Amino acid sequence: MRIVLVGPPGAGKGTQAAFLAKNLSIPHISTGDLFRANISQNTELGRRAKAFMDAGDLVPDEITIGMAKDRMEQPDAVNGFLLDGFPRNVSQAEALDGMLEEAGMKLDAVLDLEVEEDEVVKRIAGRRICRNDSAHVFHVVYAAPKTPGVCDTCGGELYQREDDSEATVRNRLEVYHTQTEPIIDYYKAQGLLVTIPALGEVADVTQRAMDALKK
Ligand SMILES: [Zn+2]
């Protein structure tokens, strides 16, 4: 099965991608992993990507597309793959279609993890992390510490990461809407879009996605 997974920040996309890939016995291909692998293996694409990143510039689409193509041609991807974080705009989606067509393949489904925006903001902005250990994570509503602002585990001070502030989360959602939502329309027009309600237990969401893929 060849699947693309899309969803806004806070939808649990990385977690779902890992579970779904395991259930379907296909590799989970994330752009983050592609960049790390190409840079650590010092490939030509990795060196080019790094030069842009070091300069603080966005990596051009053609480099990302090249990395994705190399990865999809590896032996473990012959029976399919699950793409996570790619494509992230319509021109990448078109490039992906072209690549697959050349190889005589096509996508089977595009899974869209759907969450209420206010719920995402509530989930992320309520997160509090311990200054002593970032693995000590609390939530002001869903996993409140016994004493507000104090870590239950070690007594450390709890704080909100800059990335988790409401303004930052709203900004990331805005960026997502502008860049990624057009690809949802693009795949909808191809009849590939499958919308999965992504709130609730992780295992329930995975099951919903598996059920939808069987249809
Ligand atoms: Zn702690």
Automatic annotation (TrEMBL):
This protein's species is: Streptomyces roseus
Residue ranges for the region (NMP) are 30-59
Recorded hits in HAMAP family, A to Z, give:
Adenylate_kinase_Adk
**From the Swiss-Prot or TrEMBL record, what is one GO molecular function term?**
ATP binding
State the similarity comment.
Belongs to the adenylate kinase family.
Q: Domain comment text?
A: Consists of three domains, a large central CORE domain and two small peripheral domains, NMPbind and LID, which undergo movements during catalysis. The LID domain closes over the site of phosphoryl transfer upon ATP binding. Assembling and dissambling the active center during each catalytic cycle provides an effective means to prevent ATP hydrolysis.
Residues at which ATP binds: 10-15, 127, 137-138, 200
Top-level division of the source organism's lineage: Bacteria
Give the pathway. Answer: Purine metabolism; AMP biosynthesis via salvage pathway; AMP from ADP: step 1/1
GO annotation terms (biological process) = AMP salvage
- GO CC annotation terms, alphabetical: cytoplasm
User: Is Nucleotide-binding found in the keyword set?
Assistant: yes
Alphabetical keyword list: ATP-binding, Cytoplasm, Kinase, Nucleotide biosynthesis, Nucleotide-binding, Transferase
Residue positions annotated to bind AMP are 31, 36, 57-59, 85-88, 92, 161, 172
- Role of this protein: Catalyzes the reversible transfer of the terminal phosphate group between ATP and AMP. Plays an important role in cellular energy homeostasis and in adenine nucleotide metabolism.
Q: What is this protein called?
A: Adenylate kinase
